[in-house]
Amino acid sequence: MEKEDALNALAALGQETRLDVFRLLVKAGKEGMTAGAVSDALNVRPNTLSTHLGALSRCALVRAERDGRSIHYIADLATMQSLVTFLLRDCCGGNPDLCAPIANLFTTVSCSDTKGL
């Protein structure tokens, strides 16, 4: 991931509703959710949600997949992984011991344990 891409993704996630949308879609998993379901779950007006989905889509954090007449929005975890990798690439000045708490988070916490994160 390039610096500009990281900045765009962080800017998109830096808005409260967009962060809520992304987190909801992560929880929804690979099935994703329709815009209507996201709108209902977050109590966001459809036209407002459309704007937020567009911002998340432009920086590749969310992708849309057509399923018949419906469009499902899915969190793109590969982009999130690239963003996290970009942020941690030079973690702790090359001293891996300082990064251990972050690395341990990913090796000791199961998906069901991350609800409060």
Give the helix/strand class: mainly alpha
Q: What global shape is seen?
A: elongated
What is the CATH first-level class name of the largest domain?
Mainly Alpha
Main sheet summary: 3 strands, antiparallel
Radius of gyration: 16 Å
Q: How are the strands of the largest sheet arranged?
A: 1-3-2
Summed over residues and divided by their number, the pLDDT gives a mean of 87
Core attributes:
117 residues; mainly alpha; Arc Repressor Mutant, subunit A; 2 domains; three-stranded antiparallel beta sheet; 6 helices; 3 strands; elongated
Summary?
This protein has helices at residues 3-13, 16-28, 35-42, 46-58, 77-88, 96-108; strands at 33-34, 62-67, 70-75. It is mainly alpha-helical. It folds into 2 domains: 3-76, Orthogonal Bundle (Arc Repressor Mutant, subunit A); 78-114, no CATH class.
Helix/strand layout:
Blueprint: H1 3-13, H2 16-28, E1 33-34, H3 35-42, H4 46-58, E2 62-67, E3 70-75, H5 77-88, H6 96-108
Antiparallel strand pairs: 1-3, 2-3
Task: Please characterize this protein's 3D structure.
- With 117 residues, the protein is mainly α.
- The protein has 2 domains: 3-76, Arc Repressor Mutant, subunit A (Orthogonal Bundle); 78-114, no CATH class.
- The chain has helices spanning 3-13, 16-28, 35-42, 46-58, 77-88, 96-108; strands at residues 33-34, 62-67, 70-75.
- It has a 3-stranded antiparallel beta sheet.
- The model has no long low-confidence stretch (mean pLDDT 87).
